[in-house]
Automatic annotation (TrEMBL):
Protein name: Periplasmic protein
Length: 145
């Protein structure tokens, strides 16, 4: 969803917002991200356009920051809501100098740090998740034998 609220008249450059070293021109919400939004963030405004509109507002107000300094796939909104995003180069949009603009593809929402304490340290959280899934698979495998 591109930013609908911005009315740019008589200009040739598409509207974009800078996030780190990327110039975001479009936000795409995946089905998985929408499902996680409903489960972990909010249950009232759950449409793709509602989520994308919220993300645009956060981008414009500079409320989205990278979770890790070196990695560029996990981001937080207001130091609370954690989400995973990927970037792809937009085939249709460039800035006035011909530099590429990016689409931000929101892969999933991990949840709020204020509600899920494990999200404060994602590396520990992911190792715990792998361990718990492996243990579940081992238990299920034992039951089948």
């Amino acid at each position: 969803m591109k930013d609908k609220h911005t009315e740019r008249w008589n200009t040739y450059e598409p509207f974009y917002v800078v996030l780190g070293d990327k110039k975001v021109v479009d936000i795409i919400i995946t089905n998985h991200a929408r499902a996680r939004w409903t489960d972990r963030v909010e249950s009232e405004k759950t449409g793709f356009s509602d989520i994308a509109e919220y993300m645009w507002e956060c981008l414009k107000e500079d409320r989205i920051v990278s979770y890790y300094r070196n990695e560029q796939d996990v981001y937080t909104i207001d130091d609370d809501l954690v989400f995973v995003a990927e970037f792809s180069i937009s085939e249709t949009d460039t800035d006035l100098l011909g530099n590429p603009l990016h689409k931000m593809i929101v892969v999933t929402f991990l949840g709020r740090m204020s509600e899920t304490m494990e999200l404060r340290d994602l590396k520990t959280y992911y190792s715990w998740l792998r361990h718990s899934r492996r243990m579940t698979l081992i238990k299920n495998n034992r039951k089948r034998r």
